[in-house]
Amino acid sequence: MLSGHLPHPVGKKLNFDGASQGNPGLSGFGVVVRDENGNLVGAICGPVGIATSNVARITALEEGLKWVSSNGISKVRIEGDSQVILSGITKKGFMNWRLNAWILRINYLLQKFTDYHLNYIFREGNQVADFLANQGIAKTLPTVMSTEDAGNRDFQNLLNDDRAHFSRMGIG
Which of 18, 62, 128, 149 is at 20 to 30 A from 82, Cα to Cα? Predict the structure, then answer.
């Protein structure tokens, strides 16, 4: 279900993004999950290898859904700034046949949720996931971050700025 605005709050909010240096080039993914108040539940970033930005983005969505599901979250609002990825998932197919390999896996993961919504957002509303995706390029393994991860000031500043705007753009 692709929608613009939810009439009611839905569990947690998952933002995803991918980055590619060269398209195709070295790529990474980023995911941030927040609660209904904008507080960080978890964040993941990691490498994708040599890939296009769309492969990095769909990898981010898949990794985010796996993480959310494995952490017992049953209701999720999924947001990304890629209309290509979101409409491909909704329509159950992409014009780029290489991306179609993800459809079955993502639909399988989506079936694990009691309620989910896919939403397109503007790039400005996806800054934390974008930052994480760019961080993921340099990683050798996926990295999970939490509120205790104060080691990265840029990450913390983006989270705080995002939370300040969350009531306007959030899930509540």
Answer: 149
pLDDT digits (tens, 9 = 90+) for 95-104: 888 888 899 8
Q: Where are the alpha helices (DSSP H) in 71-150?
A: 83-91, 101-110, 127-137
What span, in angstroms and rounded, lies between the C-alpha atoms of 48 and 11? 28
The 3-class SS string of 57-86 reads HHHHHHHHHHHHHHCCCCEEEEEECCHHHH
Among 17, 31, 16, 13, CA closest to 166:
13
Fold topology of 12-161: Nucleotidyltransferase; domain 5 (3.30.420)
CA distance 21 to 73: 32
Instruction: Please classify residue 64 by burial: count the beta carbons closer than 10 Å to its beta carbon, then call 0-12 exposed, 13-18 middle and 19+ buried.
Output: buried
C-alpha to C-alpha distance for 172 and 36, rounded to whole angstroms: 6
Q: What is the pLDDT of residues 3-38, one digit of tens each?
A: 444 444 568 999 999 999 998 999 999 999 999 888
Cα separation, 153 vs 159, in Å, equals 10
Strands 12-21 and 25-34: antiparallel
Q: Residue type at 96?
A: N
Q: What are phi and psi of 95, to 5 degrees?
A: -70, -35
